Amino acid sequence: MAGKGTNPIPGRPDGAPSELSQDISQWRVGERKRLIGLRLAMSADERASKTRAIAAGLDRLIGSPQGRIVSLYWPFRGEPDLREWSTKIIEAGGQIALPVVIAKAQPLEFRLWAPGEPLERGVWNILVPSSGRVVEPDVVVAPVVGFDAANYRLGYGGGFYDRTLAAMTKRPFKVGVGYAGARLATIHPHAQDIAMDAIVTDERGSHEH
Ligand SMILES: Nc1nc2c(c(=O)[nH]1)N(C=O)[C@@H](CNc1ccc(C(=O)N[C@@H](CCC(=O)O)C(=O)O)cc1)CN2
Ligand SMILES: Nc1ncnc2c1ncn2[C@@H]1O[C@H](COP(=O)(O)OP(=O)(O)OP(=O)(O)O)[C@@H](O)[C@H]1O
What we know:
Layout: H1 21-40, H2 44-62, E1 69-71, H3 83-91, E2 95-100, E3 109-113, E4 119-121, E5 127-129, E6 134-135, E7 139-143, E8 146-148, E9 153-154, H4 160-167, E10 173-177, E11 183-184, E12 198-200
Parallel strand pairs: 1-2, 1-7, 7-10, 8-11, 10-12
Antiparallel strand pairs: 2-3, 3-6, 4-5, 8-9
Bound molecules: the ligand Nc1nc2c(c(=O)[nH]1)N(C=O)[C@@H](CNc1ccc(C(=O)N[C@@H](CCC(=O)O)C(=O)O)cc1)CN2 and adenosine-5'-triphosphate.
Residues 28, 154-163, 166, 190, 192-193 line the site of adenosine-5'-triphosphate.
């Protein structure tokens, strides 16, 4: 099965899953690179049209955002750009929060933000709200690098969302968002990986509940 463009877990001639965590973390590194490469290779038009489909999927899944805080993200490395959708959430009576990296290996903080409000460069130069109140979102929309059939999410490898979700006192509704091409059979989840309640992609399918 180790065809062109695949990244078999090493240690097995057939690429079958090995339980060696070192092999799995190497496999994750390779898959992150491959999947980020795939989405960066898409045209801006293709990303925009897939992003519109993702936004429609989020609307169907989440329903009315009235009185709810939805955490989004400031897009980078070809992630779906949902900033236009964030305006719709606010117009419909919801609020938007953005994640802030406080430090490596620490949970994220979420700060309220609305389009037009000031942002500043945080850790790794990521833009974060300068002044919004720190909140716990009702809905966490987390960008995925990859995702699997059990709704586990592969991110950039910082473990930020897993730590954040584990530390939250509220139990938010957790939605992973990404392109359909980011689907994997399994991400070989670690014990501390937290599955999403749903994954929304540009393809309508069984991941929506
Ligand atoms: N748009 C967006 N914002 C987000 C996230 C995200 O996934 N997407 N995050 C979701 O977690 C947090 C940021 N997570 C990040 C994790 C790793 C790297 C990164 O560049 N890591 C380097 C290695 C850095 C180092 O260890 O020195 C790398 O991958 O090369 C960047 C952001 C919060 N904000
Ligand atoms: N709740 C947690 N407590 C302690 N360590 C954790 C926790 N969650 C994740 N980690 C550690 O963080 C590291 C990266 O985790 P993982 O590969 O799952 O990141 P990711 O989901 O791809 O990244 P991100 O969530 O930042 O997008 C791993 O070494 C993992 O053990």
